[in-house]
């Protein structure tokens, strides 16, 4: 019983305290009311007191002024109770309705003063008479050919107004007034017995909508045209891909086949449905292909890799294996790859190489046999010269023997060379001149030989005439330039000029070429042979007698003509 008495006593005390608070609030309210300084706060205090006394929530408007600017809030407050159910405070929420209040006030103002409304406002009686029309409604009255309080609405609009009044439901419609468009709302005012008509000038909006519609149609037309173009391009590209003899496919980063063309289907002997989704490593060597795919994704593309794959049980050589990264419409990264089966071409190349090796061996053998035959002829001349007592005839035999050796030396150089088409003239000239010195039994210590050849390579058709020219001119120097054991120097220079032109210089610092002798019309066979060989090379020859004897010959390399 004592506990219950204490609880009642506590409740009585709390009730007394609550009443005291209310009294204090009322006193404050009375003080503020008398002062009449902030009337709005009195309303709020009344609301707070009402909530505290009734214990129920209350919604009211509250105006808050900050820095001279007022805003209106819709506030809801409710009592806050402790665990015993006693009201110990208030809780609430508020929503800013300032703009809403301003809009309502403007609407109310225009409703009270329709003449200030920039849009048409009319009131229509049930018999169609215009009870009221503001200034903005003039365009409508002109179109309808009626006046306020006089001519009624046209039948069409009169019937429309009657339907609205009878149904009691507002209706919207639209009317064209010359170059303007109005949206009209017919609102029944049953109690007053008329229909209010509210208009809104939608001319600019309609024009904007029409312009937007035209632009939309134009855009749709362009999109349709572009779609057709893209479709054509896609079909054309697809045709190129399908008709290409090279296999083409798309792969994901894991090497799965996402798409193939007909060439790849034929390459592996499987259909597209079976190939898509399978691994490319089933057909191409994994190590090289995996490395290539990784490089493509890293660098964006690779070019011209050659692979050897086991496809349908045979070794297939794939060249020009290339790839590039692209983004699918779904946003995934894939690679587009191409390749070409060159197995047959490789086999044909190997056959050609083998055939060329055989022909090269045969050609070397021919050069070897020609060289041997020329040496046999040279040996026969040498043996025959042993029976000749006439010195002049012996000299002719010796010259012929040297000329034959010169030609034989060309074939020997070709036989020993790696290149069967070109002769290294530096080595050839050195061997040729050394043989001449030995043949004429001159004092090698007394006559110095200087050879200056700048990396000149000549074909056999040019090398043989050039060698014979050197043979004749050097022979003349050895025979006539250094009489009675006189010492001297013989220079042989061969250089390559521009445009496949060559210059050959054969000179000595001996007694000099006879001034009264025309070398172009000489009766000696050697000089006649030189002139003939220069013409064969389509070249020119000049003689300089200023310091010893110098022959300068310019020529071009002869083109090899195929013989049928």
Q: What does this molecule look like?
A:
With 564 residues, the protein is α+β, with helices and mostly antiparallel strands. Helix content is 48%, strand content 27%. It is built from 14 helices and 20 strands. It has helices spanning 2-35, 39-54, 98-112, 138-144, 155-167, 203-243, 262-268, 272-275, 286-299, 343-385, 391-416, 425-440, 460-481, 525-536, and strands at residues 58-66, 69-81, 87-96, 121-125, 130-133, 171-177, 180-189, 194-201, 247-251, 257-260, 301-311, 314-327, 333-341, 422-424, 447-453, 457-459, 488-496, 501-508, 540-544, 549-556. The strands form 5 sheets. The chain has a 5-stranded antiparallel β-sheet. A 5-stranded antiparallel β-sheet has the order 10-9-13-12-11, sandwiched between helices. Strands 15-17-18-20-19 form a 5-stranded mixed β-sheet, with helices on one face. Helix 10 (343-385) runs antiparallel to helix 11 (391-416) and helix 11 (391-416) runs antiparallel to helix 13 (460-481). The model is unreliable at 1-6 and 31-39 (pLDDT under 50).
């Amino acid at each position: 019983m004592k506990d219950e008495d204490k609880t009642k006593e506590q409740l009585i005390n709390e009730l007394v305290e609550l009443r005291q608070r209310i009294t204090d609030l009322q006193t404050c309210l009375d003080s503020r009311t008398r002062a009449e300084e902030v009337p709005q706060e009195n309303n709020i205090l009344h609301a707070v007191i009402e909530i505290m006394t009734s214990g129920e929530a209350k919604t009211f408007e509250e105006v808050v002024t900050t820095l001279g600017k007022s805003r209106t809030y819709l506030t809801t407050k409710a009592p806050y109770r402790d665990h015993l159910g006693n009201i110990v405070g208030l809780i609430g929420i508020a929503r800013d309705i300032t703009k809403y209040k301003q809009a309502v006030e403007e609407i109310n103002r225009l409703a009270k003063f329709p003449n200030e409304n920039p849009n048409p406002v009319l009131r229509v009686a049930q018999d169609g008479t215009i009870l009221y029309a503001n200034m903005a409604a003039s365009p409508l009255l002109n179109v309808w050919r009626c006046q306020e309080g006089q001519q009624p609405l046209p039948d069409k609009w009169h019937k429309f107004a009657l339907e609205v009044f009878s149904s009691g439901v507002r209706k919207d419609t639209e009317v064209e007034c010359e170059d303007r468009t109005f949206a009209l709302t017919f609102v029944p005012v049953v109690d007053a017995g008329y229909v209010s008509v509210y208009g809104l000038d939608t001319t600019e909006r309609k024009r904007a909508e029409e312009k937007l519609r035209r632009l939309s149609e134009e855009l749709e037309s362009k999109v349709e045209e572009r779609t057709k173009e893209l479709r054509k391009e896609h079909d054309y590209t697809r045709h190129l891909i399908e008709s290409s003899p090279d296999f083409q496919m798309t792969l994901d980063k894991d090497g799965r086949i996402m798409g193939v063309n007909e060439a790849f289907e034929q390459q592996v002997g499987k259909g597209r449905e079976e190939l898509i989704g399978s691994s490319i490593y089933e057909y191409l060597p994994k190590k090289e292909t995996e490395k290539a795919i990784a490089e493509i994704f890293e660098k964006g593309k690779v070019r011209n890799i050659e692979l050897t794959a086991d496809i349908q049980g045979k070794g297939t050589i794939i060249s020009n294996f290339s790839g590039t990264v692209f983004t699918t419409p779904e946003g995934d990264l894939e690679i587009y790859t191409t390749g070409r089966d060159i197995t047959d071409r490789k086999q044909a190349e190997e056959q050609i190489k083998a055939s060329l090796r055989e022909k090269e061996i045969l050609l070397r053998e021919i050069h070897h046999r020609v060289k041997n035959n020329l040496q046999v002829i040279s040996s026969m001349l040498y043996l025959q010269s042993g029976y000749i007592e006439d010195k002049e005839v012996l000299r002719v035999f010796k010259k012929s023997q040297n000329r034959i050796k010169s030609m034989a030396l060309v074939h020997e150089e070709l036989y020993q060379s790696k290149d069967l088409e070109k002769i290294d003239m530096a080595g050839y000239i050195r061997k040729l001149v050394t043989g001449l010195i030995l043949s004429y039994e001159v004092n090698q210590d007394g006559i110095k030989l200087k050879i200056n050849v700048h990396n000149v390579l000549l074909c056999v058709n040019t090398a043989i005439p050039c060698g014979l020219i050197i043979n004749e001119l050097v022979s003349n120097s050895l025979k006539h330039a250094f009489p009675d054991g006189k010492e001297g120097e013989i220079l042989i220079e061969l250089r390559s000029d521009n445009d496949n032109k060559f210059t050959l210089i054969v000179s000595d610092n001996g007694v000099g070429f006879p001034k009264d002798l025309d070398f172009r019309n000489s009766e000696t066979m050697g000089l006649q042979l030189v002139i003939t060989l220069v013409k064969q090379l389509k070249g020119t020859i000049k003689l300089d007698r200023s310091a010893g004897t110098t022959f300068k010959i310019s020529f071009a390399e002869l083109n090899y003509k195929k013989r049928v």
